[in-house]
Design a protein that fits this description.
This protein has about 150 residues and is an alpha+beta fold. The protein has 2 helices and 3 strands, in the order ααβββ.
Length: about 150
């Protein structure tokens, strides 16, 4: 029995597979993990802003409303597995975007409108901690009921 002429090619398929796996699949998995982290941050910011707005909009006074809003933000970001230390809660006057948020405090009077802004710092896996320029901001417009007691 004679041997085929391509004996020098034996075992090259496993080398090619390992090379392709390292060059293509590892970066692809990293990209999927990075995009997942960013999307998780976006979901956390939007959900936290909505829940904080609902909590504050139905509160009887500002102090208890802010405490309820902070707790709602904490729960919402933990639900998306985002560290609560990377979250900032702020309020903006009606018509202003989240860029103007920070110095405004809602009065919680009947019929008042304001925005709740939650900014989440998104951490990409395997990048150093000082690289935190990626942020996601969620905004929720709150309109207090005009017909509330007190």
């Amino acid at each position: 029995m004679t041997r085929p002429a391509d004996d020098g090619e034996r075992g090259s398929a496993i080398v090619e597979f390992v090379f392709i796996a390292l060059v293509v699949f590892v970066p692809l998995v990293y990209l999927v993990a990075g995009f997942s982290a960013v999307q998780r941050g976006v979901f956390a910011a939007n959900e936290a802003a909505r829940e904080a707005g609902r909590a504050l909009g139905t509160a009887p006074d500002l102090a208890s409303g802010q405490a309820r809003a902070a707790e709602a933000v904490r729960i919402a970001v933990e639900d998306q597995s985002v560290a609560a230390t990377d979250v900032r809660l702020a309020y903006a006057p009606p018509g202003a975007g989240c860029g103007a948020a920070g110095g405004y405090q809602p009065a919680l009077v009947p019929g008042e409108e304001f925005s709740v802004c939650v900014t989440v710092t998104v951490r990409i896996p395997l990048l150093p901690e000082f690289i935190d320029a990626n942020t996601a901001t969620g905004q929720f417009l709150v309109e207090r009921d005009r017909y509330v007691d007190g």
